[in-house]
Amino acid sequence: MSASRLPRKVAVVGVALAECGRVDHATPYALHAQAARRALADSGLDRSVVDGLASAGLGTLAPVEVAEYLGLRPTWVDSTAVGGATWEVMAGHAADAIAAGRARAVLLVYGSTARADIRAGRRTANLSFGARGPTQFEVPYGHSLIAKYAMAARRHMHEYGTTLEQLAEVAVQARANAAANPEAMFRDPITVDDVLSGPMIADPFTKLHCCLRSDGGCAVLLAAEEYVPDTAKVPVWILGTGEHTSHATMSEWADFTVSPAAVSGRLAFERAGVRPADIDLAEIYDAFTYMTLVTLEDLGFCAKGEGGAFVEKGRTGLRGALPVNTDGGGLSACHPGMRGLFLLVEAVRQLRGEAGARQVHRPGNRLPELAVASGTGGWFCSSGTVVLGRG
């Protein structure tokens, strides 16, 4: 169903972060609850309005266990799990459900103690997503997730002449944006030389090409238009969404230089009735620097192969032509696992004008009016894109 033809408009009416960064004293369930309470308070709505819950990544019966912990008894649920793209895909599903009258208000909530669990020995870092199904044919060769992204980056470099320095610029600019975010985990400035001289993780990625590992949580509350007059903040409307999956194994990936955002982005923009040129800021999943670069291409902000030149000279900074990952992204702000929901939180805060020192202003000192959040799952296996508008 096209978002522009939805019988009922849908708005983001509440967003919030739980504690993020280094959180050694809380469980993932506690972070879910903290984020949910804060998002509900941010909305100004009573919890009785919430009749939908979307959650993934926690418990054997997600979102059943999360709903029980939060004291909710939803009549609409979604546990779609497609990696980092999960939350943009869920936002699309929730918007469709609300528009169709199947729910009044849907809470999207996430929490993870990925960093604390490893430090405490409760889990170990994983090299593979599993050794069953199609991926079993790649696992014996040590084909880890980061290796897959590294191969894709190398292919882009080979095809289009993208340079290590251009990839490094993505990390440098993310850190510069994080410097204005008091909630970011890392805020000290870095240079291209710092990125290039770091320890090698998976060629061509050094440490600073890779996202950090943190704890944290967040929540987003979507509601039908009739509840907007009762909310505490300016509504941010869901204008259009798109989702796409492309492959599970590298052998079935037709082109390493094209991500599924090429499809999800096109669908989201078409359904919103806007063009990439209309967008004021972009929140893009950035587990690795290459993800930002290729997603910018695939969303249509520049032509295929021109992402390297696009990210140079501060173009993606807070005062740049297209501010990207304004909170510092997964490279510098936080990355507690499936980070896609954080993209929606930051986009909403920017559109509301609540981002403080990192607030984006467009020509004429006006607040941004349109934003896009695009999540990526797996090794470019899935993508979800959401176009949001203020007022």
Task: Give an account of the 3D structure.
Helices cover 31% and strands 17% of the residues. It is built from twelve helices and eleven strands. The longest helix is centred in the first third of the chain and has 16 residues, at 28-43. Residues 242-390 form the Thiolase C-terminal domain. Pfam families: Thiolase_C_1. Keywords: Transferase.
List its salient traits.
391 residues; alpha/beta; Peroxisomal Thiolase, Chain A, domain 1; 9-stranded mixed beta sheet; two-stranded antiparallel ribbon; 31% helix; 17% strand; globular; disordered N terminus
Q: What class, by secondary structure content?
A: alpha/beta
- Tell me the radius of gyration: 19 Å
Low-confidence stretches: 1-5
Task: Give the number of domains.
Answer: 1
CATH top level is Alpha Beta
Helix content: 25-40%
Shape: globular
Q: List how many beta strands DSSP finds.
A: 11
Average pLDDT across residues? 94
Distance between the termini: 23 Å
Measured by DSSP, the beta-strand proportion falls in: 15-25%
From N to C, what is the helix and strand string? EHEHEHEHHHHEEEEHEHHHHEE
Q: Give me the CATH superfamily.
A: Thiolase/Chalcone synthase
Specify the number of helices.
Answer: 12
Give the CATH architecture.
3-Layer(aba) Sandwich
Structure in a nutshell:
With 391 residues, the chain is of the alpha/beta class. Helix content is 31%, strand content 17%.
Task: Tell me the layout of helices and strands.
Blueprint lengths: L9 E8 L10 H16 L8 E3 L9 H7 L5 E3 L7 H14 L5 E8 L1 H6 L25 H16 L3 H15 L13 H5 L3 E3 L2 E2 L9 E9 L11 E10 L15 H12 L8 E4 L4 H10 L8 H4 L18 H4 L7 H13 L17 E8 L4 E9 L1
Parallel strand pairs: 2-3, 2-4, 9-10
Antiparallel strand pairs: 1-7, 1-8, 4-7, 5-6, 8-11, 10-11
Helix pairs in contact: 6-9
